[in-house]
């Protein structure tokens, strides 16, 4: 019998994670924040790696190869922000790759296409000196010089072609890390970074540069033509951040009361920033695809999570076939590292991925029962032996206007709850938008929620009917449904749609089918099972705790329905 081959990928940047492939397919993966309970946690990787090993019942001795990636440095084998698990296993091979190469391989491993182009845009990649395997062009060709600058020169965006076996770099842009002249605030990334600009505006509006998704939700409340400065300039296929706009931003929101008091001001800033980012992304996509046109495009890097800009690329005809890696931010680095190890270093065969993003461990009814008995003995609990009765009961509760904590199967890998660790409610109850924000997630009341809909029905409710299984594209609600779907649409009529079908995450798909049987609509409000400042729940204990302390009406956890 052939021995199983395990390849470990580990990402040590922010949004740290670990992934183990078994014979070239994802066997287990977890983001560190789900375990440490610290949002965007990164650095030392021992916690996430041990989770993956334990899930598979193996040790580091069983790992054929490990591949790692950070951002600015190559982590030492034995220590990185604490002692690493590799210290006790000196014989396990450990290879390092650069940042954008890891992003690229995360799409290669999971893409539905055979041959395709790859675009990576983020806040900041690896320093030039570390890009030894995909370096092009030379710094001199970009007007940069290692000798002329004191700071780092790092990846800004990268464009590749994968022919089914080999990856070829077609263009890479770099930028120095520098302080914007005339501004006391340092860019959190490289000087001319699209992702860095968006993070800067997020910091300005919310006091946190990691709230880029929140900024996208704020933008529709803004007015156009209030701010008209050009944030970027474009030259010979490259994007540069201008300096003129920065000095005019003199009133950062130092706290939430300041933000609330000046809501329209920050909304106008967000509207302007979103439009400027869309222009910059469109410029890069148009230029890069001209280098190797008529190819499907795979897209990764933190900027790829901008669902509004993604939809505009399709609407503007810049791409015909688009795959966005669901864990496009740095949580996907470990995935790319693992696939690089399997495909490039071990020369394993590329296996078609089934589209699944649920890579965490699952919990049995017995696990749930133990948690209930030990910590929550006084809840109203119903255990269903019949799965169809469980689904029917849950769907009826949603149709009756109840809010549901939904905990099923393996947890999602990536920033979006796609029906494994979700909060669900009726999309037709307009009150849900405010109620869930205020009383369940305890977050800002302007933030919208997403509709999850049966893929075969998406065209009935939404203008473009995009296939969007990972909730990374924004669509528009059809006019005849605009007054009925306010719980899952934004102030401008947009909606970040998730389309569901049964090839993976079957429990969620079956729930939508049951909802359609009961209500006539296979659609539900879907948002992540967490509260503000907290990672998505990972364990039954965390799910029941959040259910108990919030205004959630029901917890549907495995085959249990729990009510208060």
Structure description:
The protein is of the alpha/beta class and 564 residues long. Helices cover 29% and strands 20% of the residues. It contains 15 helices and 22 strands. Strands 13-22-21-14-15-20-16-19 form an eight-stranded mixed β-sheet, with helices on both faces. It has a five-stranded mixed β-sheet with strand order 3-2-1-4-5. The chain has a five-stranded mixed β-sheet with strand order 8-7-6-11-12, sandwiched between helices. Strand 9 and strand 10 (238-241) form a beta hairpin. The radius of gyration is 23 Å and the shape is globular.
Give the percentage of residues in beta strands: 15-25%
User: Per the principal axes of the C-alpha atoms, what is the gross shape?
Assistant: globular
Mean pLDDT: 94
Distance between termini? 52 Å
Task: Classify the secondary structure makeup into a structural class.
Answer: alpha/beta
Please give the largest β-sheet: 8 strands, mixed
Share in helix: 25-40%
Poorly predicted ranges: 179-185
How are strands sequenced across the largest beta sheet? 13-22-21-14-15-20-16-19
Number of strands: 22
Gyration radius, in Å: 23 Å
Q: If helices are DSSP runs of H or I spanning 4 or more residues, what is the number of helices? A: 15
């Amino acid at each position: 019998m052939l021995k199983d081959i395990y390849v470990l990928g580990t990402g040590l940047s922010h949004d740290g994670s670990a992934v183990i492939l078994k014979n070239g397919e994802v066997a287990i993966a977890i983001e560190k924040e789900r375990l440490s309970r610290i949002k965007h946690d990164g650095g030392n990787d021992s916690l996430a790696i041990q989770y993956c090993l334990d899930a598979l019942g193996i040790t580091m001795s069983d790992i054929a190869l490990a591949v790692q990636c950070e951002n600015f440095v190559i982590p030492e084998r034995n220590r990185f922000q604490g002692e690493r698990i590799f210290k006790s296993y000196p014989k396990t091979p450990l290879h390092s790759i650069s940042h954008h190469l890891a992003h690229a391989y995360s799409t290669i491993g999971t893409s539905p296409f055979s041959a395709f182009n790859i675009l990576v845009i983020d806040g900041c990649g690896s320093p030039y000196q570390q890009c030894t395997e995909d370096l092009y062009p030379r710094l001199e060709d970009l007007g940069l010089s290692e000798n002329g600058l004191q700071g780092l020169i790092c990846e800004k965006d990268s464009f590749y072609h994968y022919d089914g076996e080999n990856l070829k770099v077609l263009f890479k842009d770099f930028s120095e890390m520098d302080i914007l002249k005339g501004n006391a605030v340092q860019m959190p990334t490289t000087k001319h970074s699209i992702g860095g600009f968006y993070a800067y505006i997020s910091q300005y509006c919310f006091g946190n540069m990691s709230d880029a998704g929140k900024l996208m939700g704020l933008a529709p409340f803004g007015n156009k033509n209030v701010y008209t400065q050009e944030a970027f300039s474009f030259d010979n296929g490259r994007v540069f951040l201008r300096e003129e706009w920065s000095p005019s931003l003199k009133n950062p929101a130092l706290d939430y009361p300041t933000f609330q008091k000046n809501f329209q001001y920050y909304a106008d800033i967000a509207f302007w920033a979103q439009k400027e980012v869309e222009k910059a992304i469109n410029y890069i996509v148009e230029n890069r695809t001209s280098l190797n046109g008529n190819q499907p495009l795979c897209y990764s890097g933190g900027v790829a999570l901008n669902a509004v800009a993604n939809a505009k690329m399709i609407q503007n005809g810049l791409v015909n076939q688009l795959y966005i890696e669901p864990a496009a931010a740095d949580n996907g680095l470990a995935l790319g590292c693992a696939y690089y190890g399997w495909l490039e270093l071990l020369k394993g065969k590329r296996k078609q991925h089934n589209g699944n993003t649920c890579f965490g461990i699952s919990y049995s009814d017995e696990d749930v029962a133990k948690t209930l008995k030990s910590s929550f003995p006084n809840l109203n609990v119903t255990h269903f032996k019949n799965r169809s009765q469980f689904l029917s009961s849950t769907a009826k509760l949603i149709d009756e206007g109840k809010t549901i904590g939904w905990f099923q199967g393996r947890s999602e890998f990536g920033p979006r709850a796609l029906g494994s660790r979700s909060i669900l409610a009726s999309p037709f109850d307009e009150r849900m938008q405010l109620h869930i924000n205020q009383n369940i997630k305890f977050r800002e009341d302007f933030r919208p929620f997403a509709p999850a809909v049966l893929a075969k029905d998406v065209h009935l409710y939404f203008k473009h009917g995009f296939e969007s299984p990972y909730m990374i594209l924004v669509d528009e609600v059809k006019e005849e449904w605009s007054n009925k779907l306010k719980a899952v649409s934004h102030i401008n009529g947009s909606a970040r749609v998730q389309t569901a079908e049964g090839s993976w995450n079957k429990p969620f798909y079956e729930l939508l089918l049951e909802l359609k049987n009961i209500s006539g609509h296979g659609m539900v409000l879907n948002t992540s099972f967490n509260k503000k400042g907290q990672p998505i729940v990972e364990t039954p204990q965390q799910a029941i705790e959040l259910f108990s302390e919030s205004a959630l009406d029901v917890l549907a956890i495995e085959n249990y329905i729990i009510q208060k």
